[in-house]
Amino acid sequence: MEGSDFLLAGVLFLFAAVAAVPLASRLGIGAVLGYLLAGIAIGPWGLGFISDVDEILHFSELGVVFLMFIIGLELNPSKLWQLRRSIFGVGAAQVLLSAALLAGLLMLTDFAWQAAVVGGIGLAMSSTAMALQLMRDKGMNRSESGQLGFSVLLFQDLAVIPALALVPLLAGSADEHFDWMKIGMKVLAFVGMLIGGRYLLRPVFRFIAASG
To answer: The whole model's pTM is what?
Structure first.
């Protein structure tokens, strides 16, 4: 995608988002569903403004990076310490029990056990972006159930890294080797984004707010 096309797609996304949020709020369906409907409207199965989805995948990668920064901004070490039992207790129980149940169901439908385990782990995960946005829309962030949900989501995000590392092990093909360097780089990138979001962006935002 050329620079001008990339910029045009970005402007189109922003316009669709700005139009979708108030409309979704007016209809009472929530901002997340509004974003999904906006994507359908401008995509190849709607008005066709965006025809090649593969060319604009960079936007989704950028969105994930910003999401990690936002999570880092909101993480408070003392709060995490208070939620440690919920994160590693309820969060771990949700992931492990859901993955085991779903893997068992997949094995009953003649999936190989390796594929069933990978599918079970994948289906046990939730979308952090959608869930956090829905909790914000419902005003659940400060509630007990909201804190519990946040703990589960946080553990799921942490579990993604070992889950990705597990895939090549379960693949078991002779030409696949377990690349510890790549896994280590993913772990460092994840930790770096969390630390950067908290300790680098927050002072910058405070400086900008004080200057303005």
So the answer is: 0.55
